[in-house]
Write a structure and sequence with these properties.
- With 441 residues, the chain is an alpha/beta fold.
- It is 30% helix and 15% strand.
- It has helices spanning 17-28, 33-43, 127-136, 149-157, 209-225, 232-247, 250-253, 263-269, 272-286, 315-335, 401-411, and strands spanning 54-60, 89-91, 98-100, 113-120, 167-170, 189-191, 290-295, 342-348, 369-375, 382-384, 386-387, 394-396, 399-400, 419-422, 425-428.
- Strands 1, 4, 5, 6, 7, 8, 9, 10 and 13 form a nine-stranded mixed sheet that branches. Strands 2-3 form a two-stranded antiparallel ribbon. It has a two-stranded antiparallel sheet with strand order 11-12.
- A hairpin with a 6-residue loop joins strand 11 (386-387) and strand 12 (394-396).
- Residues 1-34 have low confidence and may be disordered.
Length: 441
């Protein structure tokens, strides 16, 4: 495994003399210096804290197969049911790190990327439960509605500018992506069509600007004459209404006019999914803190990443589209000197096993799978964690979902050790996760 490459503007924990001495002893015990330094820093009350101001989270619904993308292994054969990768692998700019042959645009950029190959959770055969796990970091609970990672970051850091929402979802909404017990104020603004912007911010047909002004005036009168309330839910709802009224103006809505971008740049990003990634860059420029970009199930192959049976036949089209869009996003952010301040995250609900099913596709695997981090000022190394020769079992540096969430929170300057409160009930932000220390070395 290659160590980190491009350093640039990094968030660094400077070890004390005591940490340096401890590091020598830890090496003899098989511990890494970075882990020791972070343990020392936290013992001294310091916090692992990065410098990213924004997070762009790309969601691959259905379950991206790690063995066919960012953790390729020996070639398999669906005809003879020989377990292994569906595609050939290629070298990257990071020595010793390979990716699937359909990630050709990302391969030369992997020194800005870390494929976390050793993620795991116990949810295997239930898409909704696994999607919830990878958005909230926890199992579904009957007693508490946990907030999504997007809502946590919105709650902790707010918008980066007054004229922007803190959290935007480019895709279809559901409760898994929502604020849970944090309430309406930390929910998302969503859209499904990049050419029009959020429908909720667009004046309905048949309502003139004069009529809209009259309605806003009536709302103001009602609020002035209403009895004061201490109900936080009502206060948050009023705050959301006020924010939406501000955002419906031309200043913010112009961010959705993608035709303002050069045609060559738009073409570099590719089709609809790529345009969503381009829009995410425009949104963070405007001050949005967290954006989820959904790679919808209907794109290209009709079933998304859930490649059972013959669904695997067109999986390469999904991989190529992801490759084109994410590579363009990384280069675009880098050219605008925004990459170190923007953490790109690629997540999915689980991975796929190396074995082929009866139709030549793959089932589900939660015990070992890959998610990806890029930019964000981290010390990238191409890959972190290691699986066996068929990407079925983790053999080095396992990363739990809470650990992965803690890494994202730390990169975004959020205290991953703190608790939020559902009433009087403390809820740890990341369910006691620890950041991947080596990415902050």
């Amino acid at each position: 495994m290659s160590s980190g490459n491009k350093m640039g503007d990094r968030s660094e924990i400077r070890p004390t003399r005591r940490a340096l001495l401890a590091g020598g002893a830890a090496a003899g015990l098989g511990l890494t210096f970075a882990n020791t330094a972070i343990a020392e820093a936290e013992a001294d009350g310091m916090l692992v804290k990065g410098k990213a101001d924004h997070v762009i989270s790309i969601w691959l619904g259905g379950g991206m197969g790690q063995i066919d993308t960012f953790d390729p292994k020996k070639k398999g054969d669906p005809q003879t049911k020989l377990a292994g990768s569906y595609y050939d692998s290629i070298e990257t700019t990071v020595p010793g790190v390979q990716v699937c042959e359909h990630l050709r645009s990302l391969a030369p950029l992997m020194d800005r990327v870390t494929a976390v190959r050793s993620l795991h959770h116990e949810v295997i055969d239930e898409h909704a439960a696994a999607t919830n796990r990878m958005h909230t970091g926890r199992s579904v609970s009957g007693t508490i509605a946990y907030p999504s990672l997007g809502s946590i970051i919105a709650h902790e850091r707010g918008a980066a500018s007054e004229g922007a929402p803190p959290y935007v979802l480019i895709g279809y909404p559901n409760v898994t992506r929502g604020p849970g017990f944090l309430g309406t104020r930390d929910s998302y603004l969503y859209l499904t069509d990049t050419s029009q912007g959020p429908a909720g911010l667009t004046r309905p047909d048949g309502i003139t600007s004069q009529q809209l002004s009259q309605r806003e005036e009536l709302l103001s009168v009602l609020k002035r004459n209403a009895d004061p309330t201490t109900d936080q839910r009502l206060i948050d709802y009023d705050t959301a209404i006020e924010q939406n009224l501000k955002l419906s103006g031309p200043e913010f809505m112009s961010v959705f006019e993608l035709d303002r971008e050069p045609a060559e740049l738009r073409n570099n990003y590719g089709g609809e999914f790529g345009q969503r990634c381009l829009l995410s860059r425009r949104l963070i420029e405007r001050g949005v803190r967290f954006i989820e970009v959904s790679h919808n199930l209907n794109f290209l192959n009709g079933i998304g990443w859930d490649v059972h049976n013959e669904g695997i036949l067109n999986q390469h089209k999904l991989i190529q589209e992801l490759d084109t869009a994410v590579a363009a996003l990384i280069r675009d952010l880098e050219e605008k000197r925004m990459l170190d301040k923007t953490l790109i995250v690629i997540t999915t609900e689980f991975g796929r096993p190396p074995e082929f099913d009866s139709g030549g596709g793959r089932g589900h695997q939660g015990t070992a799978f890959s998610c990806v981090l890029a930019g964000g000022g981290l010390s990238h190394r191409g890959a972190w964690g290691e699986t066996d020769d068929v990407a079925k079992k983790i053999v080095a540096n396992p990363v739990s979902v809470p650990d992965f969430f803690a890494t994202i929170c730390a990169a975004a300057g959020i205290d991953y050790r703190k608790s939020l409160y559902d009433g009087d009930r403390p809820v740890p932000v990341t369910d006691m996760g620890q950041p991947i220390a080596e990415l902050f070395a």
